[in-house]
Amino acid sequence: MTEPDDGQGEAAPARRRVSRRTLIVSGAAAAVVAVGVGVPAASLAGVLPGRSTLYRLLGLDGPAGTVPHVESGPLVQGRFRSGARLGADCGWTIAYPPGSGPGDRLPVAVVLHGYSNTHSTAFGAHAHGLEAFLAQYVADGGQPYAIASVDGGNTYWHPRHSGEDASAMVVDEFLPLLGRHGLDTERIGLLGWSMGGYGALRLAGVLGPSRVAAVAAASPALWHAFPQTPHGSFDDAADFARNTVFGRQDALEGVAVRVDCGTGDGFCANDEDYVAGFASRPAGGFTAGGHNNAYWLRMNPAHVAFVGRALTP
After folding, report:
1. C-alpha angle with apex 130: 106 to 211, nearest 5 degrees?
2. Sign for the pseudo-dihedral over CA of 225, 230, 234, 236
3. Which of 64, 155, 158, 304 has the smallest CB count inside 10 Å?
4. What's its EC (predicted)?
5. Could you report the per-residue pLDDT of 113-159, keeping only the tens digit for each?
6. Which CATH superfamily is domain 75-311 in?
């Protein structure tokens, strides 16, 4: 399976012999011809290449989400040099709900960003807007908590042969930083999309229920086998085997889990297989949408509320 062919924060391009443009053009052209002769669009999407583009062209992605027009709480930003990331300069942001601010003892959810994104992609009206979704959640009666994000690079949030480990950066460097800002890091929430969705599921399983109350993953970038993965996402087959989340669903026992993926997303089939591997089906589901910000914005209210409820029972 190749990578999804559209979206923001998607994983790196997958290994392939045929160009992406060729697949998209041929898939879209076949769709036009087939629909013209009465072949159901839903059937086409399951067999033609360029699944994400095909769904979008056929209008099967559903409505785009929007960032709520509410007054958000304060954002606090900074940078630190990460030893776990081999000296990388890591930017970070903490979003507080309205009425709260630095020094307040709030629960916190950590956001793991997608490929080619940074900590800032989680926030802002033209990105994921999580500070506004958090403000709306609290305005609707949810208990206040903070959402924090940090630069993880493009190493898929797991230890690499180079020695870089973005997940260790989160646990050993970023969480202590959040604690110094007064936040309660004893038991956290995790959020993530695409590469970060995979990273959030993996890290929640590594830390377990004593450290993680909930994980919500949107369109997690999951593969069944190393040969399917994009170049650079895993070092080799052994690295993939050590860090895959398939077959390790029981590590999330006691953690509230939510997984969502759009049916027009190239990861949908793999994500459905992952969800099917739980003894008890996680929250979330598979509805119209692509591997893009339009879908992730639509999921944000549910994800912010899901994690918030688990952090403040």
Report:
1. 45
2. positive
3. 64
4. 2.3.1.122, 2.3.1.20
5. 999 999 999 999 999 999 999 999 999 999 999 999 999 999 999 99
6. Alpha/Beta hydrolase fold, catalytic domain (3.40.50.1820)
Long-range interactions of 250-253: CB distance < 8 A, separation 24+ = 250/279, 251/204, 251/205, 251/206, 251/208, 252/201, 252/204, 252/205, 252/209, 252/215, 252/278, 253/209, 253/279
Amino acid at 285: G
Distinct helix (H) and strand (E) counts, the chain: 10, 8
Report d(CA 53, CA 236) in Å as an integer: 30
Would you call 2 exposed, middle or buried from its count of C-beta atoms within 10 A (0-12, 13-18, 19+)?
middle
SS3 310: helix
Q: Which residues contact 3 (CB under 8 A, 6 or more apart)?
A: 10, 11, 12, 13, 14, 230, 266
Does pTM top 0.70 for this prediction? yes
Distance CA 262, CA 15 (A): 23
Domain boundaries, the chain: 75-311
What are 216's strand-pairing partners?
191, 258
